[in-house]
Design a protein that fits this description.
The complex is a heterodimer of chains A (about 120) and B (about 350). Chain A is of the alpha+beta class and about 120 residues long. Chain A has two helices and eight strands; from the N terminus they run αββββββββα. Chain A has a domain of about 80 residues: mini-chromosome maintenance (MCM) complex, domain 2, CATH 2.60.320. In chain A, the strands form two sheets. Chain A has a four-stranded antiparallel sheet with strand order 2-1-8-7, with no helix packed on it. In chain A, strands 3-4-5-6 form a four-stranded antiparallel sheet, with no helix packed on it. The longest helix of chain A has 26 residues. Chain A is rod-shaped. In chain A, about 20% of the residues are buried. In chain B, strands 1-2 form a two-stranded antiparallel ribbon. With about 350 residues, chain B is mainly alpha-helical. Chain B is globular, with a radius of gyration of 22 Å. Chain B is about 70% helix and about 5% strand. Classes of the chains: A alpha+beta (about 120), B mainly alpha (about 350). The interface between A and B is medium-sized, with 28 and 34 residues. Strand 2 of chain A pairs antiparallel with strand 1 of chain B, so a sheet runs across the interface.
Chain lengths: ~120, ~350
């Protein structure tokens, strides 16, 4: 330890600070991505909101097709009669779409708590 | 500016030290494949102490990297890309910091080198292993911080007490005529055939994401490695595949199969992670098979050009160090006794 110079101590402190800062940043950027959660009568599916895709799930009556496109989620096909579920689309945390006859709910879930409060108001 | 100021004997000697350190590092079993001690950075610190020019220093880094890849057999796998990034970024950081030796000792230089190399390495690793690998960043860096700190202290102690370094600065090393290239052993024709097949399969492996094909290629490369009597560390392979798959689960995709606490095991993420892990492990196995014919080319082209001579000296001194290391016994159990032993071994090898 005697051989260490003043610059070493400064560097050590700096590096530990950068390490903590970068770790937090990486956890933030990789941990807080919004997800689309689709629940069916028997199963649960999770897909990322920021990746486009078309997903088919089985409900009470038949298939429902849910599309994720440019962070917008909507039903594009449904086996139910009234097709109410196909009317709107969602794009924010805490929002959901439901097809009650077919027993399918699609919601956007993010671990970022602030946004949830915002939507709840 | 970029001209070699040091004789190829001396550069070869330090390269041999790097290779020897890599060998020791490779022989130490590690719990997780991402954690490294960075022993082979010690010769780089010595090169900085000896005030190597930038060109010589850079050549030393490149040789260090290639010999590491050669020893571990990862030359043609994704690991090489990672170690290239790590070696060059860390090496440059250490070189720049060394310009201000008034303010820093080797502890600072070593710690910054390790931090930089780990940072760049993990950023590049996201290409191969997905963004979620960044979650390992704190563990990797914390481990690197401790090991590089200790290495820095050792280097500080060593440069003051070493007899080898005194000798190294003053001695003029004679040219050796009968240099052999690396002793690559007997490369049978079957090894070369396996090498060619592996090259084709390797290309194919990059193009597919089908889990069955990937597992098939994995089995092929595993069996070839077993037949050719390459060392297989079963536990390491299992831990590697398990940890890469586990990290991928943090990016859920598809049907939820299982809930473990707050972690949801999804079908898609499981398949993506497993395929990715097996693929990476396969490139590593295939790379070892590819080395077979790479070695046979190397053997033919042992020449008189600069790099050839350099590598010649590297292997010459490597065998010297290896031999002297095995002869000399450690007296006492303290870490200083080990450092003294290394010093004597290096000095004897230099003067042989």
């Amino acid at each position: 330890m005697k051989s260490m110079k003043i610059g070493d101590y400064i560097l050590l402190i700096l590096i530990i600070l950068i390490l903590v800062g970068l770790s937090l940043f990486f956890f933030q950027s990789t941990g807080n991505q919004a997800e689309v959660v689709i629940t069916t009568p028997n199963e649960e599916y999770i897909y990322p909101l920021d990746k486009d895709g078309i997903y088919r799930v089985q409900g009470y009556i038949g298939l429902s097709v849910i599309e994720v496109k440019e962070s917008q989620v909507k039903f594009i096909e449904s086996s139910c009669k009234n097709k109410i579920c196909m009317i709107g689309s969602i794009n924010r945390n805490g929002q959901f779409l439901a097809c009650l006859p077919n027993g399918i709910i699609a919601s956007i879930v993010s671990s970022n708590q602030e946004e949830v409060d915002d939507v709840a108001i | 500016m970029l001209q070699s100021k040091i004789s190829s004997q001396k550069l070869g000697f330090l390269a041999a030290c790097c290779m020897f350190c890599s060998l020791i590092e490779f022989a130490i079993p590690k719990p997780v494949p991402f954690l490294r001690l960075g022993l082979s950075n010690l010769p780089l610190l010595l090169a900085l102490f000896l005030q190597f020019g930038f060109a010589d220093y850079l050549i030393l880094i490149l040789i260090k990297m290639f010999s590491q890849a050669w020893i571990s057999g990862s030359l043609f796998s994704y690991v090489f890309v990672l170690s290239f990034t790590a070696s060059v970024s860390g090496g440059l950081a250490m070189y720049l910091l060394n310009k201000k030796r008034k303010w820093f000792s080797f502890v600072g230089i070593s710690v910054v080198g390790a931090f930089t190399s780990n940072l760049f390495q993990i950023l590049v690793a996201t290409i191969f292993m997905g963004e979620k690998i960044l979650l390992l960043f704190p563990i990797m860096e914390a481990f690197g911080l401790v090991s590089s700190f200790i290495l820095g202290l050792i280097a500080n102690y060593y440069v003051v007490h070493s007899k080898f370094l005194e000798e190294f600065n003053s001695v003029e090393l004679a040219e050796k005529k009968d240099l052999n290239g690396p002793n690559v052993g007997n490369e049978a024709k079957s090894v070369r055939t396996v090498g060619w097949i592996s090259l084709i399969i390797m290309i194919f492996l990059f193009l597919t994401n089908n889990v069955f094909i990937v597992v098939g290629i994995f089995m092929y490369s595993l069996i070839c490695n077993i037949i050719l009597k390459k060392r297989i560390r079963v536990l390491n392979i299992i831990i590697f595949i398990f940890s890469i798959t586990l990290i991928s689960l943090f990016a859920p995709f598809g049907k939820v199969l299982l809930n473990i606490g707050s972690l949801k095991v999804t079908e898609g993420a499981l398949s993506v992670g497993f395929t990715r892990a097996v693929k990476l492990q396969s490139t590593f196995f295939l790379s070892r098979l590819l080395l077979g014919f790479f070695n046979s080319i190397l053997k033919k082209k042992s020449a008189s050009f600069y790099l050839g001579r350099l590598i010649g000296y590297q292997f010459y001194y490597f065998s010297e160090i290896n031999e002297k290391w095995n002869m000399k016994k450690v007296e006492g159990k303290k870490i200083r006794a080990y450092i003294d032993r290394v010093d004597t071994v290096l000095k004897d090898s230099l003067l042989s």
